[in-house]
Design a protein that fits this description.
Largest sheet: 4 strands, antiparallel
Structural class: mainly beta
Number of helices: 1
CATH architecture: Sandwich
Number of domains: 1
Helix content: 10-25%
Strand order of the largest sheet: 4-3-6-7
Number of strands: 7
Radius of gyration: 21 Å
Distance between the termini: 60 Å
CATH class: Mainly Beta
CATH topology: Immunoglobulin-like
Length: about 110
């Protein structure tokens, strides 16, 4: 009987635990989206959680293939010369003035044509 009661209590606790969202930290990247413009232009936008007062908004944007890295001071970036038949992976991370990443980054893979 005691075992059944303990098991019942455990099930109740598991089923009633809040399933809230992860608390975001400074520099966490969310809402990474791709927008096909025209003539091989691919525009990416994202949101970064508020930075600490002593941090500038600087982002490292990686695209592969080919493996290239760009630095952005805004929450968007546009690539040109995109081949619509190639699968691209874009990764965005917040970086500090020393080039070190912080917060959680986000990535997206996209191919425009099958």
């Amino acid at each position: 009987m005691h075992l059944i009661m303990c098991l019942s209590t455990l099930i109740h606790i598991v089923l009633t635990c809040p399933k809230g969202k992860k608390t975001l930290s400074a520099g966490d990247i969310t809402e990474l989206k791709a927008h096909w413009l025209t003539n091989g232009l691919l525009h990416f936008t994202w949101h970064a959680e508020d930075f600490n007062m002593n941090q500038k908004k600087i982002f490292k944007v990686k695209k592969s293939p080919p493996a290239d890295v760009w630095i952005s001071l805004t929450e968007f970036y546009t690539f040109d010369g995109i081949d619509p038949y190639t699968m691209y992976t874009i990764e965005v991370q917040s970086i500090d003035t020393w080039g070190q990443t912080f917060g959680s980054g986000q990535n997206i893979s996209i191919r425009l044509m099958d």
